[in-house]
Design brief:
The complex is a heterodimer of chains A (252) and B (215). Chain A is α/β, with parallel strands linked by helices. Chain A is built from 11 helices and 12 strands. Chain A has a single domain, classed as TIM Barrel (Alpha-Beta Barrel). In chain A, helix 1 packs parallel to helix 3. Helices cover 24% and strands 31% of the residues of chain B. The radius of gyration of chain B is 16 Å and the shape is globular. Classes of the chains: A alpha/beta (252), B alpha/beta (215).
């Protein structure tokens, strides 16, 4: 059966790898391609590039970075941020992306999910969801424009609908946990994984081997990592060894 | 090292495939014209998408006969993912469609239930292990010879190939309790259901072996 995937999430602003806390207070870390190459060589399973200011400016600026990455990174690459149409998707696939992650455009017009799935297959269409817990304790609400705007959509319902429309994977980020490295939103992962029959990529808050083990036991097929890797709290190879020792099936 | 001619039928991750060959210093040309195929020294047929559309484009560009002729001359050919499926006789994807007929066999949908009758997620997307076929203990003598049994490669597919002759099966992968044909070879034609260009070092070693075998 398929192995649990570890995905390096590289958030990009103006050609720099950046990292924030709860998507705010961004720090510049360096050249995204350099980081992607390092993670690839250390054994990461997939690269996820997100242009985190793109949807504010209605454009994705990752073409050059994606194209350069195909020179020396030979694993699947997902690209998101500011993709608004099938034409935008086609352009980024031609630059070497294998899948696209779409949040804002899907919330504004859910038909794009079906259009992309019909044109390139559902395996290419990753629905990206930014979830914030509702203050009243009543589940989670989906946010867009990199966590700035709220949609009114219930996350669990939106995930279900997205899959019905053709999404082949759900990139599920907890904005509340993001960047803190103090654990993931386990309830969120569990609830969304139990209602969709496509892989769920858990994102936001992974700070230890335990957090990854928990996300997998809660139903995640893949875990997206950023601070944990960018700040070198643990290397990819060591992380995988420890996961394997804990019974998580990973590619070694 | 021979020049690698990558066939562009409009449904491919061409750049990634091109880069994987260039990684080993290969001279790569990308073409959708019959003339270039008639001059080819080694052919690569990639593909991501629907069988029907891929074959329709090969027909529209007038590439089917030139490809068959080159293979009959003994030119090495590698099919990847949809490109592998197109090497077979026919597919049941959206009806019944004729393929290139270079490896005897058919392309069928992956069952939506596993061996125990439980629903399973199709397409298969992700990293899965390669195993030698029954009666073999490794991949000796093929382009997979550098791959240790059990090593993982990256798959994305909803359909699987069923070679007519078991001897054409090169490698299997286990999905939902069943064996799926992961690679097949018939003479100078070889196909990988997975994406060697997206399978890290293991995948690159397969690309390298294909290049070595074209020498």
């Amino acid at each position: 059966m398929n192995k649990t995937r570890l995905i390096a999430r590289l958030e990009v602003k103006n050609n720099y790898l950046v990292k924030g806390i709860q998507l705010e207070g961004l720090r510049k870390l360096g050249d995204p391609h350099t980081f992607a190459k390092e993670y690839y060589e250390a054994g990461i399973d997939e690269i996820l590039y997100l242009d985190i200011v793109a949807s504010l400016y209605n454009r994705n600026n990752l073409s050059d970075i994606v194209r350069r990455t195909t020179d020396d990174v030979f694993i699947p690459m997902t690209v998101g941020g500011g993709l608004r149409s099938v034409q935008d998707v086609q352009k980024i696939l031609q630059q070497g992306a294998d899948k696209v992650a779409i949040n804002t455009a899907a919330i504004k017009d859910p038909h794009i999910i079906t259009e992309v799935a019909e044109a390139y297959g559902s395996q290419c269409m990753v629905l990206s969801i930014q979830a914030k817990r509702r203050q009243n304790g009543n589940g989670w609400e989906a946010y867009y424009d990199n966590g700035r705007e709220h949609s009114g959509l219930d996350v669990v319902e939106w995930a279900k609908r997205g899959v019905e429309l053709g999404a082949g994977e759900i990139l599920l980020m907890s904005v509340d946990c993001e960047g803190l490295g103090r654990g993931m939103d386990r309830e969120l992962i569990e609830q969304v994984s139990s209602v969709v029959n496509v892989p769920v990529i858990a994102a936001g808050g992974a700070g230890s081997v335990d957090d990854v083990v928990n996300a997998v036991s809660d139903g995640a097929s893949a875990v997206s990592l950023s601070s944990l890797l960018h700040y070198k709290k643990i290397g990819v190879a060591e992380l995988k060894q420890q996961l394997a020792a804990r019974g998580v099936e990973v590619r070694l | 090292m021979k020049r690698i001619t990558i066939i562009d039928h409009g449904l491919s991750n061409l750049l990634s495939v091109q880069r994987a060959f260039e990684h080993f210093g290969a001279e790569v040309e990308i073409t959708s014209g019959p003339a270039a195929i008639e001059q080819a020294e080694a052919l690569v047929l990639p593909g991501v998408g629907a069988f029907r559309d891929g074959m329709a484009n090969l027909r529209k560009y007038g590439l089917i006969e030139p490809i068959r002729n080159k293979v009959a001359e003994g030119v090495p050919m590698l099919g990847i993912c949809l490109g592998m499926q197109m090497l077979f006789d026919e597919s049941e994807e959206f009806g019944r469609w004729e393929g290139l007929g270079l490896i005897p066999g058919r392309v069928v949908k992956i069952p939506s239930e596993d061996l125990n009758g439980r629903p399973q997620r199709v397409p298969q997307v992700g990293w899965n292990s390669l195993f030698p076929v029954k009666g073999k203990k490794d991949f000796e003598g093929s382009i997979l010879c550098s791959v240790a049994p059990g090593k993982e490669v990256y798959f994305v597919h909803s359909y699987e190939v069923k070679p007519a002759d078991p001897a054409d099966r090169l490698a299997d992968a286990s999905f939902g309790g069943r064996s799926i044909c992961a690679a097949a070879q018939h003479g100078n034609v070889v196909g990988c259901q997975f994406h060697p260009e997206k399978s890290g070092r293991v995948g690159l070693s397969i690309i390298q072996q294909f290049l070595l075998q074209t020498e």
